[in-house]
Amino acid sequence: MKKTLEVNSALFMFLVLFFLSAITFLLATEFRFLQEILTDYEESLRQVGVKKTTLFLNELRAASEGAAREFARRQGQGGREEALETLLAFDRRLVGASFVDESGSVVSGIPGSSPEKIKEWPPPGSLPPGRETSVLGMRGNGAGGTVATVAAPLEDGWLVLDYSLTGFRQEMIQEFLDASCKVAVFDQNNNPVVWPFSLEELDKFTGREEKFSAGGTRYAVSSAHGGQPSWHLYFFFRENNFDTYRMITIMFLLFALYCCLYQFLVELWRVNSARSYFENIDFTIFDAVKEGVIISNNAGRIIFANQAAHEIFRPRKADLKGVPLKEILGWVESASEEKNNSGTLTLKMSGRLLEAVHSPIIKKGKVLGSVTVLGASEKEGKTLRGVLDKLIDILPVGVLQIDRHQKVARANLMARCYLGSLEAGMSIDEINPELAGFIYRHMGSRSLQPVRLNAGNLAGEMACIYDEDGIYAGALLLVSPPSNGPAPAPGNNLPPRSPC
């Protein structure tokens, strides 16, 4: 029957392991599929931005070439100035037109055109080196706005046209109106054509960032180029922490898979059985514990007892290993009886009262053994402390205990009568500097030191206190007025006191 239960447990763990592996594989595949969808979506947005920018620049060049032909035709009919004025109706985006000679000087123009040389326009722009229509970039129009400037070749010069950017900006902003993605466009001179954030954020942007924060939102930055000449596009995708969530989920599933695999191997090889659980375990670390520690197996026999436990039971047994736990503790039933007994009891060993705490070791509902800890009875310690406190209080001399930090740890009524207010935690320097100096001078002494205090005409003895490791832990003083001592000097800050 037991073997059948173990087989069923291993089969159950195998099924859990199988389904968990399948779920991990499916989730990993799903995450990869979702990642590809997100990548394709972001790439499609980039392609939209690049195509719209390229289309806009192509339209500017095409419109400028058409305007140049129209200008050449009308110039022959009615003159240069009239031809320039009629061009504004040629394209609704046109806001200015100029005729420029080969040297770059403006010969004539209509409102909205710059009277300066093209070569001196900020940022630096120049006529194209070849006889072809070219977008010179973006510049200010002198009225607080910006225009895109295009130069188209003529037989005797250049036709320079200024186009409004309002329509292109609105189109780009509407296309990327979603908060998850925004786009910025810069011309070939690195002037901002479209900027989706505030001007303060523009001053922080250099174009080399991989991450950018604006308006309290953090974005991942990617770039692309579009059109001729090449304009720079920067795409700001709001971070969704998808990779972080995917990594955390996969790591959690792998950890759960590892735990199930471990448990499956445990159940398959029965490594958690009570017979082999305590093998190859070193319990000698418990030898440094002052309390007695006893560990027994599921048969109720002791497999380890530390040095303190051997000292406790030495009168009965020289070696506790292999001894039935019931033989030395009596009331504790064997763990093999499958009763999860735990509790405490008080033992009397060699005139000492010991308190034993016993608890079984259980794993997967199986009793593997038990652990028992033995220490001094708290009741006995409390009783002894009560007797000691009572004895100190009724002594006819002042008893004062100082801890290692030179603070009052305990003082009886007589000590308060002789030295004044003595509250626990008060520094002895504040109470009696003369006494504090005496303690400092004799700190670490191994013998009784006579005490004589001029202030208060007090006498007594001091003994240093040491802990179990021989380290100074304080001092104990017995003080009282001497029977034939001199009278206190006038003006002392501690006048003599009679016993209270």
Structural account:
The protein has helices spanning about 1-80, 80-85, 165-175, 200-205, 240-270, 305-315, 325-330, 380-395, 415-420, 430, 435-440; strands spanning about 95-100, 105-110, 135-140, 145-155, 160-165, 180-185, 190-195, 210-215, 215-225, 230-240, 290-295, 300-305, 345-350, 350-365, 365-375, 400-405, 410, 450-455, 460-465, 470-480. Helices cover about 35% and strands about 25% of the residues. Mean pLDDT is about 75; it is low at about 1-5, about 115-125, about 270-275, about 335-340 and about 485-500. The protein is elongated, with a radius of gyration of 48 Å. The protein is α+β, with helices and mostly antiparallel strands and about 500 residues long. β13 (about 345-350) and β14 (about 350-365) form a beta hairpin.
Share of helical residues: 25-40%
Provide the structure class. alpha+beta
Task: Report how far apart the termini are.
Answer: 81 Å
Q: How is the biggest beta sheet arranged?
A: 5 strands, antiparallel
Task: Give a brief outline of the structure.
With 500 residues, the chain is α+β, with helices and mostly antiparallel strands. The chain has helices at residues 2-78, 80-87, 166-175, 199-204, 242-269, 307-313, 325-329, 378-394, 413-419, 428-431, 433-441, and strands at 94-100, 106-109, 134-140, 146-153, 158-164, 181-186, 192-194, 211-214, 217-226, 231-238, 292-297, 302-305, 343-349, 352-363, 366-376, 398-403, 408-411, 449-453, 458-466, 472-480. It has a five-stranded antiparallel β-sheet with strand order 2-1-5-4-3.
